[in-house]
Amino acid sequence: MGEQDAILVVDADPEAALHLSDFLEREGYSIAVAATGGEGLRRVRQERFALVLIDLELPDIDPTLIVTEAGRVEAPPEVIMVTARATVDSAIQAVESRSAGYIVKPVDLVRLGAIVARVFERRRLALDNARLNAELTERLAESEALAAISATVSSTLDVHEALRRICRELGHLLGADTSAAYLHELATGQLVPAAAYHVPKEYLPTLSSTPLPLTEQGFFLPLWADRRPVFTDDVAQDARFTHPMFRSFPHQSGLLLPLIVDDEVIGGFYVVWWTMRRRFSDRDLQRLERVCEQVGFFLRNARLYEQVERNQHRLEVLNDVSRRLAAAHDPQEVLTIIVNEAARLVGAEAAGIRLLDGDELVVGARTDSASSVMSRPRLKVGESLTGLVVARGEPVVVEDLTADTRYDSAHKQAGLAP
User: Residue 193: beta bridge partners?
Assistant: First the structure.
């Protein structure tokens, strides 16, 4: 039995207290003894008991004060009144104090044992019911959250909007102040902001634009490799949360949840409590893992639909290009069609084609918007980005033109110009 299962005997008669405590200890109960009513009152306030046996003839205080105080504490103990004088008044006093039993001295130990056993059985059942009700409430909250997430995701085909709505439902489920979604960017290895909910205006620019370098943070392995939620109730002092983004807006607690789609971690949710110290039990974390699994399932369907839409669009563009190319007879017209449709297909602002002429590349066609970034009519093979593509025979991807030294300086300047 734990400390909360102990029995407190409050009796000013040392022999009577010893008689009761010895018997109950032999029955397997943990016993504490208070020799005065004042001590019993103090211990009821400061300690946790399952049962309190109180002598009605305490010389220092009214025993009903202990009964009243016992009823005020968290998880109140049951009370059994013990008296040497079985009178109508003492019986009424026991009933009015709502005690669980009434025993006359000298105590019938068999009867006492039966009453105590009933008290503990009733208490066990009450605790079991409370636990089951708590679990049922948690499951209901989880089911409602999943239903809400399912409804929000199925009502939009836009992944980022789905993420924003999931952030909202996670905030409601956890009683959080703010939540944000991040997606993993393979090229940089960073977590890039994708959506957020209930972000204060003064923090929105920071949260919406600051990526997190995943591998540099202490939560990388548990979140990414073990795929487990990571939380802290003291962000400022937690060595796992060292990125300036976590320091740029003061908050007390944070929770990171992995976003898993098709058995692959593709991002995560960051949930924030500004002032509350929020902690999670193992059962809480297991529940959140189930929610994350379902979120991943919903998002997988949204991503599949998005992919189907993209493929459909590409097929339509390619079909249109094929039709237009079949009708074109001038080579320059063919190149112009290819350039413009390629830009439309990938959503580019500018595009162009260079053709190999000896050891040089000449402009074959370009969109009107590409004139400044393809101003040089000829390039050597291996020169600038187009020359590298021809020299290597493979695509070249540049995500930051400012930092790239291979791009022709005149073209770079034009491309970066406002």
Answer: 182
